[in-house]
Amino acid sequence: MIDRLEELQAEALEKVSQAEELKDLKDVRVAYLGKKGPITEVLKGMGKLSNEERPKVGQKANEVRDAIKDAIEVKEARLEKEALDQKLKEESIDVTLPGRSVRRGNRHPLTSVTETLEDIFIGMGFSIAEGPEVETDYYNFESLNLPKDHPARDMQDTFFITPDLLLRTQTSPVQTRTMEKHEGQGPVKIICPGKVYRRDEDDATHSHQFMQIEGLMVDKNIRMSDLKGVLETFVKNYFGEEREIRLRPSFFPFTEPSAELDISCAICHGEGCRTCKQTGWIEVLGTGMVHPNVLRMGGFDPEVYSGFAFGMGVERLAMLRYGIDDIRHFYTNDVRFLSQFK
């Protein structure tokens, strides 16, 4: 039996040395060290041996098992290392190659313009106020001197959700809400940026959803000259020091007197051209002194307090600043257009 065990050891070690893959080593392990292998068969016959031979055969069987097991483990480790080296060689990375640059995005032009406008007005002491986009009829119309039968309501074609709820047509409701929070005590000095909605047909100059920034200042002894000073500071900071302004009489139900603000045309410098329709001036925003009824609805005594308000479209200001001729460019998400504003 000892001779048979030595033969099996030599045979197994020869197969281990010839193995070229891990699968071959697994086959050797199962064939010689498994429960149905030849070594196990030899051991099954130990019952026929004498008491003197039995421990010698058992010891030899253990030595053969250990020798085969050790040889398999050594060869297995070498094959695994060779496989890893080959994989690393095939998947090597050339660290001398230049890296691929990551494409960076940029702010949307409307976001950029809004932040610029906020910085200008914050620099003049205004704070930012926000309000809901789904508004009540009261805050969107009635508190702004537009009762239910007022003909000026026809100026704004509205998205109604219920008879009393609607998508706000302007950010002016934020002004009333803010005045209420002050409980009739000034000063109030805010700008209200945000989205507004109107039932307009989308074309080059109109959109059913757009952005506005409205401003409000209420305090004692606020005059039209204060309004002009604020707007002139805004225009020169946003459009450039060389720009001139003018105020034209107009009508808005929530201001009295009301005016339109025009700026001198940057193309023709007031001489007249296609951009300004030969007038030398470009309309920018609507403004005026806050109507006494609006002050009263906001909780302020119009005999004590006065104020001014203004409202401007962010898209219009962006179009004037960057020379954009179609408002739809802001909302079509064309990367070719947006990438110009890095």
UniProtKB/TrEMBL annotation:
<dbReference type="InterPro" id="IPR004529">
    <property type="entry name" value="Phe-tRNA-synth_IIc_asu"/>
</dbReference>
<comment type="subunit">
    <text>Tetramer of two alpha and two beta subunits.</text>
</comment>
<dbReference type="GO" id="GO:0004826">
    <property type="term" value="F:phenylalanine-tRNA ligase activity"/>
</dbReference>
<dbReference type="GO" id="GO:0000049">
    <property type="term" value="F:tRNA binding"/>
</dbReference>
<feature type="domain" description="Aminoacyl-transfer RNA synthetases class-II family profile">
    <location>
        <begin position="111"/>
        <end position="340"/>
    </location>
</feature>
<keyword id="KW-0460">Magnesium</keyword>
<dbReference type="Pfam" id="PF02912">
    <property type="entry name" value="Phe_tRNA-synt_N"/>
</dbReference>
<dbReference type="Pfam" id="PF01409">
    <property type="entry name" value="tRNA-synt_2d"/>
</dbReference>
<keyword id="KW-0067">ATP-binding</keyword>
<keyword id="KW-0479">Metal-binding</keyword>
<protein>
    <recommendedName>
        <fullName>Phenylalanine--tRNA ligase alpha subunit</fullName>
        <ecNumber>6.1.1.20</ecNumber>
    </recommendedName>
</protein>
<comment type="similarity">
    <text>Belongs to the class-II aminoacyl-tRNA synthetase family. Phe-tRNA synthetase alpha subunit type 1 subfamily.</text>
</comment>
<dbReference type="GO" id="GO:0140096">
    <property type="term" value="F:catalytic activity, acting on a protein"/>
</dbReference>
<dbReference type="InterPro" id="IPR010978">
    <property type="entry name" value="tRNA-bd_arm"/>
</dbReference>
<dbReference type="GO" id="GO:0005524">
    <property type="term" value="F:ATP binding"/>
</dbReference>
<dbReference type="InterPro" id="IPR002319">
    <property type="entry name" value="Phenylalanyl-tRNA_Synthase"/>
</dbReference>
<dbReference type="InterPro" id="IPR006195">
    <property type="entry name" value="aa-tRNA-synth_II"/>
</dbReference>
<keyword id="KW-0030">Aminoacyl-tRNA synthetase</keyword>
<feature type="binding site">
    <location>
        <position position="256"/>
    </location>
    <ligand>
        <name>Mg(2+)</name>
    </ligand>
</feature>
<dbReference type="InterPro" id="IPR022911">
    <property type="entry name" value="Phe_tRNA_ligase_alpha1_bac"/>
</dbReference>
<dbReference type="GO" id="GO:0000287">
    <property type="term" value="F:magnesium ion binding"/>
</dbReference>
<keyword id="KW-0963">Cytoplasm</keyword>
<keyword id="KW-0648">Protein biosynthesis</keyword>
<keyword id="KW-0436">Ligase</keyword>
<dbReference type="GO" id="GO:0016740">
    <property type="term" value="F:transferase activity"/>
</dbReference>
<dbReference type="GO" id="GO:0006432">
    <property type="term" value="P:phenylalanyl-tRNA aminoacylation"/>
</dbReference>
<dbReference type="InterPro" id="IPR045864">
    <property type="entry name" value="aa-tRNA-synth_II/BPL/LPL"/>
</dbReference>
<dbReference type="InterPro" id="IPR004188">
    <property type="entry name" value="Phe-tRNA_ligase_II_N"/>
</dbReference>
<keyword id="KW-0547">Nucleotide-binding</keyword>
<dbReference type="GO" id="GO:0005737">
    <property type="term" value="C:cytoplasm"/>
</dbReference>
